Amino acid sequence: MRLPLADLYNKPDERNLLDHTRQGIIGKPLDRPEGPLKVSGSATYAAEWKLPGCVDGVLVLASIAQGKVTKIHDKAALAMPGVLAVLADKAMLRRPAQGTAGKAPAQDVAKVEYFGQPVALVVAETFEQARDAALALKVEYKAAKSPIPFDPESPDAKVEKAPDRKAVKGGDLDKAMKNAAFSVDVEYDTPGHASAAMEPHATIAEWQDDKLILRGSYQMLAYNVKEIADCLSISPKKVRILSPYVGGGFGSKLGITHEAVAAAIAAKELGRPVRVVMTRQQVFQAVMRRSETRQRVRLACDAGGKLIGLGHEALVSNLPKEQFAEPVTQATEFLYGGDNRLLKVDVARISRMTAGSVRAPGEAVGMQVLEAAMDELAEKIGIDPIELRKRNLPGKVPVQGTAYSSRMLVEALEQGAQAFGWDQRNAQPCQSREGDWWIGMGVASAARVNMLIPAEARVTLKADGTALVETDQTDIGTGSYAILGQIAGEMLGLPIARVTVVLGDTSLPAGAGSGGSFGAISTGSAVMRACEAIRAKLADKLGCDAEALDLKDGVASSGDTSSPLEHLLDGGDIAEIGSIKPGKTALDYAQASYGAFFAEVAVHAFTGETRVRRMTGAFGFGRVLNAKTARSQCLGGMVWGIGSALTEELAFDLRDGHLVNHDLAEYHVPVHADVPAIEVILLEERDAAASPLQAKGVGELGICGAAGAIANAIHNACGVRVRSFPITLDKVLPHLPDPFAPDPFATAA
Ligand code: MOS
Questions:
Q1: Which residues' Cβ are closer than 6 Å to ligand 1?
Q2: Which of these, 45, 388, 527, 584, has the minimum number of CB atoms within 10 Å of its CB?
Q3: Which residues make beta-bridge pairs with 66?
């Protein structure tokens, strides 16, 4: 039942279909259908399935950073109560998979590449017994003869070009810097980040004959099936993954992780279902991190505040041979002008756990630094930072020459400024003091690339006038259940109560998965196309053209003819699979979601402590599919921005390479007391180049630049420019103006 429509998205779909349907639920802030299950504790997460005969496995992590496992003394462990097996199979995963299906490098299971790399699995009747034996397991190591550095800044670290990212070069940046009326040449650094999803990585593996069933917590099921099959050298057809509820992923569950493969191997060996849940500390140590970055930004502009040169060069890190390098310059490539440019990313090969995608890879840390540097330039020129941004939006992508699809950055800056009260800001630092606190305001742009990913979904309009949406798409807390139901309800003219959405099962058509902010628009487009095919059949049955068909509240009508769907269907269901694949629109248009952040902070005049007092974000990402879940995504991103600006930082011990702060007590994500009132403004926009829905990605937009606005507000408050994130009080304190000066403003930097 293929659609007659070509599934490649080659031309912008300008029909604007969802503005002509009449159900009126698309975009509305409808509740998540699975919400009551989640808040009542009855949604079954990965570790919560109860399978008869299921036993527990606990991973054992390497206690050295580099070398070899020479012996695992498993006798004593095997003699402990309830212990069933100690496994160190050669198929066990060494590093988290990152789209490596079919090309996974040969693995040496004895080799240790980073501190905390899983080296064995202990299985026992109960979790407690397995943990006890895992702690008691004696592993002998031999340290590597020529270890690689733990520190990307070490002169011994091998530095390579980012494998997947071409440098952008245009004109002569050095000359532009020399000829500039105003310029900045600054270096910033950002620390490593943890995904810090609330639900730890967990898998229950079960074999039914030669078929493997995994109940786990993953983001991209169609890929994850291939990854697991690749590890176990079996056909992907033999693997089924169930992942209906996921307690956050933030990139860490894009690919499979160690526990999934270990559980599958153990379950095969023992002939029983095996559950492996990573502890919080294990997740921190073994699952992927966001790379720390060092970034040099060069901005050169003419007397009129127009950029003539732009440089953005980054050093990131990863394990040897990993393809992924934090794409720091991703948004810099298209955001601002400046034809003389040099944008590049280098990667230092070091021994820390695998670096990979953590929420908004690239833009999260790239934008926060670019936007802080833009603030420095605005200050030098003496113009409003919003004005500087508005003057530098190119008509075509510099160097590449690609046209932009819809771009509402100016609207975001203007509407955000108005809602926030930007006109109350004094451009001079150290001009506003409340008691012991300096008060300041900052702004930053938001930008995040938009991607359409191959996706399929099946929609069944049932004879009783209800609809069923089915795909392996995941909902990682983002709202997939809600928005996919809304799209189907809108297209088929059904109240939302008549639509059921089933997700997270690889026996269903393959959705896009959750990642890169592409889930909603990709899988949503597949749902839309399935509904279009159903509409065509309904129009046939009613005897009208598809364009003339009107569907609302379960009634089909056209002109004077009308019929309840139940009559029209006459006892038969209509099931259609819709699909979409990226086509020429992805090449013809530079597509991104945009926005603007505004932050007000208070910096303590004596301690340098920063409190964010309020934030406003205005965002344009095409059609809003659900105003509530979209707002939550933006809000969550801005909360992460607070963490990135002020608290989050992976700390490594450079003597032995271990991660020091491997839990949520020591790795500081913002908590309620750190998060003030946050206002989110959703702009009205349609972007036909992005998807048939005319929607773009929003999932990660709220983080892309947010920390820059906070850094800029700190400078506006107390005159201190900190070029090292997170901006902790120790970095602010030495540079604060004298708090006892008779006229504190007189000491302004
Ligand atoms: Mo995202 S970091 O692509 O899950």
A1: 219, 249-251, 254, 357-359, 361, 515-516
A2: 584
A3: none
Token pair for residue 725?
A: 């994130």
Domain boundaries, the chain: 5-30+456-580, 46-147+195-289, 400-451+588-747
Q: What is the pLDDT of residues 481-496, one digit of tens each?
A: 999 999 999 999 999 9
CATH of domain 5-30+456-580: 3.30.365.10
Tokens of 92: 């066990």
Q: Please say if 700 is a catalytic residue.
A: yes
Question: Which of 359, 448, 644 should be mutated for ligand 1, with most atoms under 8 A from CB?
Answer: 359
90 class by beta-carbon count within 10 Å (0-12 exposed, 13-18 middle, 19+ buried):
exposed
Q: Which two tokens stand for residue 511?
A: 């959705």
Tell me the pairing of strands 158-161 and 340-349.
Answer: antiparallel
* pLDDT value of residue 327: 98
* Residue 749 pLDDT > 50: no
One DSSP character per residue, 433-461 reads: EETTEEEEEEEEEEEEE-----EEEEEEE
Mean pLDDT of 12-20: 94
d(CA 62, CA 488): 49
Closest CA to 716 of 433, 435, 297: 433
Q: 142 has which bridge partners?
A: 68
Provide the token pair at 343.
């944008």
> What's the rounded Cα separation, in Å, for the pair 104 and 317?
20
Question: Would you state the pLDDT for residue 109?
Answer: 77
The catalytic position among 34, 326, 411, 700 is 700
Residue-wise pLDDT tens digits, 674-698: 999 999 999 999 999 999 999 999 9
Tell me which CATH code domain 400-451+588-747 carries.
3.30.365.10
